[in-house]
Specification:
Number of domains: 3
Largest sheet: 5 strands, antiparallel
Number of strands: 11
Structural class: alpha+beta
Strand content: 5-15%
Distance between the termini: 45 Å
Number of helices: 20
Length: 561
């Protein structure tokens, strides 16, 4: 259920913050969330018994609660939630879906505060800088708000002004988050196989980059240069004389939001062409430049009167290093050959999978996906379906999709959804195929034979493995002699007996508790302590119900075997 908020609903919507109050608010959320996760796995917490449908409904409700609570906690947590929406290896799909909806539409701050910040940052009052300045903002977000203005030279601009006290709030919140990350890192269950401190450092880096408006201005300039040969893409020009770390002045480029399909139709624009151009613009960013818009939601893309695309908001950008393309190429060859081992090895080298002692389950998951989802023609594949399959495999596995990878997948899914809204017959993969073929051609060389290249590469790999085999055997024997190698044998029968023994011991404990409370109730009743006797009796009855359910489950388990 969605919430509506007033200014008073946000305790963080002020310039001065209490670090103690923030500590209580943040840790209250964390502890409540941990309780909800603990309760989720308890069958007694589901009226009428646990079912898969009830668990799915509870996950959905918890995800909505998390999204609304992060909005209550303010800018830091709105942005952290948006970043966590890329971590499908940590959260179930319901959480990823809800967090990706997290939009920071919050109350605006006052015009008096805007005047103060602009004067502090640019050294002059608003009338000296602008011919006119609209006091009511065009839009307000958690990090700042945007006002329309006109320069003395007559050029229409928009002025982004950062929310007052934001840096102080970030410092307080990130210090508390560091303690939370450290707690989870040391947690016996949730810390295992997770790099919580690494996630915390990544969040810090992205958050500090996003509130540096000078950095955003440089990103906008780079983005515009990358599209200088495309007359159907427009990027607002930065007015550097009116820019600072907390104030950014940009060219005013109005347009129709790309998701307002009826308005585009009414303006006489070609919706099919817009859908294709949106996909082509993103593929150009990703494959040709390696510098891409990491948050291309419909609010950040508009369509001009001439049908050209207009991009806004360059605070969150992604970069793809040149060496990553070679790793992606290796992954593509593995997928083409349906070679699960090769795909896993390439993903480990890319950093998308954290190597663990037993990689068997991961290889089986990848091989299952290759065998079951890669038989369809490339053009008929859906980005959203592929990303859902990847996220399903990644959850609770040693997959560690880097932020760049998940930003790309989320952007692809968003653009595919917008494209289908513009044109029901639109297929993102069909538009992407020529770019993918071009990438493969470039990686192998225009005049080279890719098959021969691959054959020679495999021959070199085989010879390298053969030469290294004696040394690997020697290392294995040394580990056996030193006792460094552990051999793990799994016996299903032994595990069954141990589980049965554990259940019996638990049943004996329940029986002793029932006996103790029954005896206590009897003694209290004889001594005319009726209410205390009733309480003891109720406790004994409740434990009896748990004992009966345990015995029934034990009996059912025995029949299965």
């Amino acid at each position: 259920m969605e919430q509506s908020y007033s200014d008073k609903a946000y305790r963080w919507n002020r310039e001065n913050y209490s670090s103690k109050r923030r500590f209580v608010d943040i840790w209250s959320f964390v502890l409540t969330f941990m309780f909800k996760v603990w309760r989720y796995n308890k069958s007694w917490s589901y009226p009428g018994g646990v079912t898969e449908a009830k668990q799915a409904a509870r996950r959905k409700a918890q995800a909505i609660w998390v999204r609304n609570t992060l909005l209550d906690l303010g800018p830091t947590f709105i942005k952290v939630g948006q970043l966590f929406s890329t971590r499908a290896d940590i959260f179930p799909s319901e959480y990823v879906e809800e967090l990706s909806k997290l939009q920071d539409k919050v109350p605006a701050f006052s015009y008096e505060q805007v005047e103060t910040i602009i004067e502090q940052e640019l050294g002059k009052k608003i009338p000296e800088l602008f011919q006119s300045f609209e006091p009511i903002p065009l839009a307000a977000a958690s990090l700042g708000q945007v006002h329309k203005a006109v320069l003395h030279s007559g050029e229409a601009v928009v002025v982004k002004v950062q929310r007052p006290g934001l840096k102080k709030l970030f410092e307080i919140d990130l210090q508390i988050l560091k303690g939370i990350a450290r707690y989870f890192q040391n947690h016996p269950k949730w810390g295992k196989g997770r790099d919580w401190m690494g996630i915390y450092e990544e969040c810090c880096r992205i958050l500090w980059e996003e509130i540096d408006y000078l950095g955003e201005g440089r990103n906008a300039d780079t983005f515009r240069r990358n599209f200088r040969g495309y007359d159907w893409v427009k990027v607002p020009r930065v007015y550097w004389r009116y820019a600072s770390p907390r104030v950014l002045t940009l060219e005013y480029l109005p347009g129709i939001k790309i998701s307002q399909y009826e308005a585009l139709e009414a303006a006489g624009l070609d919706r099919k062409l817009i859908a294709r151009q949106g996909a082509q613009a993103y593929l150009h960013q990703l494959l040709n430049n390696g510098f891409f818009h990491a948050d291309p939601h419909p609010g950040n893309i508009a369509v001009g009167a001439d049908g050209g695309l207009i991009f806004y908001d360059f605070g969150m950008m992604g970069r793809i290093k040149s060496n990553v393309r070679e790793g992606l190429m290796e992954t593509l060859f593995g997928i083409a050959q349906k070679d699960g081992d090769r795909v896993v090895e390439s993903l480990v080298n890319l950093g998308a999978i954290a190597p663990v002692d037993d990689m068997g389950p991961v290889r089986r998951s990848v091989q299952y996906m290759l065998d079951n989802f890669m038989d369809k023609p490339f053009e008929t594949q859906s980005v959203a379906a592929i990303s859902d399959d990847l996220y399903e495999i990644a959850y609770n596995q040693p997959f560690r999709f880097p932020a760049t990878f998940t930003f790309v997948m989320r952007a692809f899914s968003t653009l595919e959804g917008v494209g289908k809204g513009l044109d029901p017959e639109f297929n993102f993969m069909e538009v992407a195929q020529p770019y993918a073929m071009q990438l493969m051609t470039n990686m192998n060389g225009a005049d080279s034979n890719s098959f021969l290249n691959e054959l020679s590469r495999q021959a070199v790999q085989v010879s390298t493995t053969a030469f290294g085999l004696p040394r690997r055997l020697e290392d294995t024997l040394e580990k056996l002699e030193r006792g460094d190698m552990r051999v793990r044998v799994r016996s299903i029968e032994s595990e069954r007996l141990l589980r049965r023994q554990g259940s019996i011991q638990l049943g004996i404990s329940y029986a002793l508790i029932i006996s103790g409370f029954t005896l206590s109730a009897t003694i209290l009743l004889v001594n005319h302590y009726v209410w205390l006797a009733v309480v003891a009796g109720l406790i004994a009855a409740a434990v009896s119900v748990i004992l009966i359910r345990l015995l029934l489950r034990l009996d059912r388990y025995e029949r299965m075997y």
